[in-house]
Amino acid sequence: MEVKVLDISGKETGAKVQLSEGIFGIEPNDHAIYLDVKQYLANQRQGTHKAKQRNEIAGSTRKLYKQKGTGGARAGNIKSPLFNGGGRVFGPQPRDYSFKLNKKLKELARKSALTYKVKDNSLVVVEDFAFDTPKTKNFVSLLNALNFEGTKTLVVLPEGNKNVYLASKNIQKAKVVTADELNTYDVLNAVKLVLTTGSVKTLEEALAK
Known about the structure:
Elements: E1 2-6, E2 12-18, H1 21-24, H2 30-44, H3 103-119, E3 123-126, H4 136-145, E4 153-157, H5 162-168, E5 174-178, H6 184-189, E6 192-196, H7 197-207
Parallel strand pairs: 1-3, 3-6, 4-5, 4-6
Antiparallel strand pairs: 1-2
């Protein structure tokens, strides 16, 4: 499928880029997307949560009162989970939430996400660009030219560009990544996807294998 290429002022350049049907026009697999997004979110979890059990609580192990004859329930030491300040039963423990997914499945998920963006007319291709200075107003001008101001926008560059990245840092709903960093979650989380001609080529080379 052919897509018109725009410049950073939002005007048509007259050039067109051919998007691969095998990447941007497949039959989307929703389950692959679900698994890839689930893995991404799981990997963001630190897993450092911790609650102390009764053997970890600082306190006396003296029996509080005699076993029988009080008319009340039996009680051991003050660290019992039944008492305020006691240990917690089956509390959270540090753990690693990450899990493995096959490379082919992750590629299928990314292709499916890209296909959805094409179907929703939410994908725009612009010519390769760079900023001379890392100024926020440069990036704002780009979004305004594309009518994406105030919209969650993901800009994909073929390679790292420090000025473009820094120019986007202060814009809450904008994110800049390189083509090799692109993941399913970021594609779906963005309302609009902006690719450059260079990043289209990089993505197709990476996902066509």
